[in-house]
Design goal:
The structure is a homodimer of 205-residue chains. Chain A contains eight helices and six strands. Chain A has two domains: 49 residues, RecR Domain 1 (Helicase, Ruva Protein, domain 3, Orthogonal Bundle), CATH 1.10.8.420; 135 residues, Dna Topoisomerase Vi A Subunit, Chain: A, domain 2 (3-Layer(aba) Sandwich), CATH 3.40.1360. The first copy, chain A, is globular. Chain A is 41% helix and 12% strand. In chain A, the strands form two sheets. Chain A has a four-stranded parallel beta sheet with strand order 4-3-5-6. In chain A, strands 1-2 form a two-stranded antiparallel sheet. In chain A, a hairpin with a 6-residue loop joins strand 1 and strand 2. Chain A is an alpha/beta fold. In chain A, helix 1 crosses helix 2. Chains A and B meet through helix 1, helix 2, helix 3, strand 2 and helix 4 of A and helix 1, helix 2, helix 3, strand 2 and helix 4 of B.
Chain lengths: 205, 205
């Protein structure tokens, strides 16, 4: 693209570094900002910079937080002995939105993926194992995505926990509430049948 | 969405003000920035702010520019007597990319659209008429989109130019180079036939 302005070119270049934003979209977004009051750009620019410079990872669960200890870990009414292991903060938000979970989290920061050069040492696995060995955790709930990488990560952590007497579970996989059986994929439907639950339990919640 | 961090919430809120960016996409983009070196965020933030604060509109053609007079208007090898009237800066970039045009531009900054509350006075129409009346322009090429608003704007300017002896033309509409006739819409194909050109001319360029 041929820009008549260096300032515009730089803004578009930086904007198009974001994932899923090409040069054309970046140009559209930047031109939109030019049509808006200057305050909108300065607020956006300020919010991004402040976030990047001041954000912390909770020292207990590695969730994103404004403080040393995140809101969940510092809430005394949450059950610290139950820990749900997730990949990133979006999973924490998804589970929190269900209002069905009162335990703590542990954010790994990714999944083991040799293809992408991510090994166990790049993830927050060690602190989790330590917490278990210190006897602070009674149950670990694995809530990673059920991909090859997710399963590998689950299994790696599970192996590391051998010898401890922590209870482990994984979230239930099955067909979505409201879905038609005929459109469900066979792996999911198969798991739904294998992991069937007593009918009385399905009436709760 | 339930954010564990005020900083994150603010950044996502600001990001989702951009057109076509919802809360989920904004969150994805912001979390991406958190995983990148701090420099990337500060460069993005800086580029947007600098652009918004320092960008100028060329005093001759209203194109976006870093200087008082844009690169095109200040280039002595461009023909200032031919002026292509376009809606916004993206159209300038599109025509510049063809490398087929050596004249000047005039950026209107929009189209007349009573539905959106845009009248002729909000657009840069007056300076164009003045330039014509001062005898500085020999030919005006209308290159607005062929929508109701585009046609209205063309016609409004055309009427304003009555009594001057400026030449007016519009860019050719027809089916795209390489397109199959059977898939072309009938209006476009109709115009292609009405505005047919001598065969010799089609061999150029």
């Amino acid at each position: 693209m041929d820009f008549s302005s260096k300032l515009l070119e730089q803004a578009v270049d930086e904007m198009s570094q974001l994932p899923g934003i090409g040069k054309r979209t970046a140009l559209r977004l930047v031109l939109h900002l030019l049509r808006q009051p200057e305050a909108q750009t300065s607020q956006l620019s300020d919010a991004l910079l402040k976030l990047r410079q001041n954000i912390k990872l909770c020292r207990n669960c590695y969730n994103i937080s404004d403080t040393e200890l995140c809101e969940i870990c510092s809430n005394p009414s949450r059950i610290s002995e139950i820990v749900c292991v997730v990949e990133d903060i979006r999973d924490v938000m998804a589970i929190e939105n269900t209002d069905q979970y009162r335990g703590h989290y542990h954010v790994l920061g990714g999944k083991i993926s040799p293809m992408d050069g991510v090994g166990p040492s790049q993830l927050n696995i060690k602190p989790l194992i330590e917490k278990v060995k210190e006897g602070k955790i009674e149950e670990i709930i694995f809530a990673l995505s059920s991909t090859l990488e997710g399963d590998t990560t689950n299994f790696y952590i599970f192996k590391q926990l051998e010898g401890t007497n922590v209870k482990t579970s994984t979230i239930a996989r099955g067909i979505s509430v409201g879905d038609e059986l005929e459109y469900a994929d066979e792996v999911t439907l198969g798991r739904s049948i294998t992991n069937r639950i007593p009918f009385e339990n399905s009436m709760k919640g």
